[in-house]
Amino acid sequence: MMKLRKLMFVLPNLFTVTSIFCGFYAMTLCTGDAEPVQMYQAALAIFFAMFFDGFDGRVARLTKTQSDFGVQLDSLADVISFGAAPSLLVYKWALEPLGFVGLFIAFSFAACGALRLARFNVLAARNPHGGGGSFFVGLPIPVAAGMLVSVIISHHAATQGEPLAEGAVVPMAVAVAGLSLLMVSTVRYRTFKDTRPNRKSALALMLVAVGGTVIATQLHPAWVLVACCGAYLALGLLESAVLVRSRLVARKVAAPGAVAVAAVIDDEGEEEEESEPGQGSDGPAYL
Fold first, then answer.
1. Among 22, 104, 107, 163, which one has the highest count of C-beta atoms within 10 angstroms of its own C-beta?
2. pLDDT tens digit string along 193-216?
């Protein structure tokens, strides 16, 4: 029985290691003078890495074999499969003609992904019981990598394997730089962990299905995946913009009362602030 229990602890880590293998295999396909078909295969390998990465945590929870070792291994796997591998892939596929600028932009994607994972681990260690929230802070690195590989896969399917056009190199560089900044930003992205079947979720699913059908019929079925990733990016930006606006409005409304109460002058003429030390005004931090 004890041996079986020990083997169960290996199972989720096996999924994580398989994700690392997919990322490593993608990098081997990108070395040298990689052809478009090889870069397409590398994108598919990273896509499969996303599949294994998505299931290792679920397997661990299902078998009740969560561990600190598994958490750290998962972060290291993400750096390889969704940081280094997509960076090398997008450099060979689109950014190489830009020379050092393209190399730096590709590196920034890997570096920002590593920084985001480090921030996630630090916050999780400080608040081990605070996980499972409704939002991520910053774009998750698997989603950022998924956006890149979905563009590569869709482009290959839509153009029958033609190389990227020269006019699309600069827009692609801007997109990679934008994804890098979103990973280290404080933009909130939904985890959808608290989603329940109801009228609102059914309406959202229907809109996604209708939008995907329109894109598949009017453009190309391959671009549906890109549209889904783009919709998730836009949703996070929109919700964060609404949140910032609501906070600014709340501060303006509270400003007259706050001025009257916050500053109290004592007998020596010293000013005392009526706020708790160390308490931020931005609310709780989400991972």
1. 22
2. 666 677 766 777 787 778 878 887
Note whether residue 286 is domain-resident: no
Among the residues of 127-276, which ranges form H helices? 141-159, 169-183, 199-218, 224-262
Other C-beta atoms lying within 10 Å of the C-beta of residue 244:
13
- Asked if residue 135 is part of any domain, the answer here is yes
Q: Which residues are 137's β-sheet partners?
A: 188
Q: What is the pTM (predicted TM-score) of this model? A: 0.79
Question: Is residue 277 in some structural domain?
Answer: no
Structural domain containing residue 77: 2-202
Alpha-carbon torsion (214, 182, 249, 254), positive or negative: positive
In order of 115, 215, 258, the CA distances from 156 in angstroms are: 31, 17, 58
| Total of domains in the chain | 1
Given a contact cutoff of 8 angstroms between Cβ atoms, the answer to whether 70 and 12 are in contact is yes
